[in-house]
Write a structure and sequence with these properties.
By secondary structure, the protein is of the alpha/beta class. The protein folds into two domains: about 140 residues, 3-Layer(aba) Sandwich (Rossmann fold), CATH 3.40.50; about 70 residues. A six-stranded parallel β-sheet has the order 3-2-1-4-5-6. Strand 4, helix 7 and strand 5 form a beta-alpha-beta unit. Helix 2 packs across helix 3. The longest helix has 22 residues.
């Protein structure tokens, strides 16, 4: 059994730019603070991890739970409004849906989604991109603050106690690469933000990606 895991924003769904902008807006509306969107400056690049560090640095620990709840609510409302203005549609990263369909047809593959985003907004984006049709276990920033922990939860949900002979994570950020290294996952970069020996602009070269995974030939 081979486990193949995916990030969502910027990896499967073309949502990174507006997602960052709306997150910054939600923090500003709730905390009255202007933050930058260079997520690499934060220890844990997840929705909850970034917010936790902001709260700590601002000395707002006493109201941590309330601020987490309020920022999450406002952010979800902003994402929902954004999607409604676009008739509930978002673009996939090229070839993502077809690639997931190919993997889903292979009995030797188990898939999972592990995103640093909160679950509610992650599912909104998957639905808007037409990627919610695939039965893939998901773990998110609603489950844990660190990406490595989220990946471990996703693995457990996907494998249910089974052992994977190989584990691969697809992501678009340096934090994805770091977490993969920490957990002993093979890493495949999507897009042009991460320097890595295994990197593809999108999923259109599916045959080459499948070969890299050792999954040659049609299912």
């Amino acid at each position: 059994m081979q486990l193949i895991m995916f990030d969502i924003d910027g990896t499967l769904v073309d949502s990174h730019e507006f997602d960052s902008e709306l997150y910054v807006q939600a923090v500003r509306e709730v905390l009255g603070m202007k933050i930058g969107d260079d997520w690499s400056a934060y220890r844990n690049v997840t929705d909850g991890g970034i917010l936790d560090e902001i709260i700590d640095n601002a000395g707002l620990k006493a109201d941590r739970l309330r601020f987490h709840s309020e920022v999450k609510t406002v952010f979800a409302e902003l994402v929902s409004q954004y999607l409604n203005e676009r008739e509930g549609r978002l673009p996939q990263i090229d070839g993502a849906g077809a690639f997931l369909a190919e993997l889903e047809s292979r009995p030797e593959v188990s898939m999972a989604l592990a995103t640093g985003g909160w679950e509610e907004t992650a599912r909104m984006k998957l639905r808007a991109a037409g990627l919610d049709r695939y039965s893939v276990p998901l773990a998110s920033g609603s489950d844990a603050l660190t990406r490595a922990e989220i990946m471990q939860i996703a693995e457990k949900r996907a494998l249910g106690g089974r052992k994977a002979s190989r584990r691969t994570y697809f992501g678009d950020g340096i934090w994805d690469k770091r977490a993969s290294g920490e957990l002993g996952y093979d890493f495949i970069a999507i897009g042009d933000k991460v320097q890595h020996h295994a990197r593809y602009p999108n999923f259109r070269r599916s045959a080459a990606i499948l070969a890299h995974l050792g999954l040659n030939g049609a299912s």
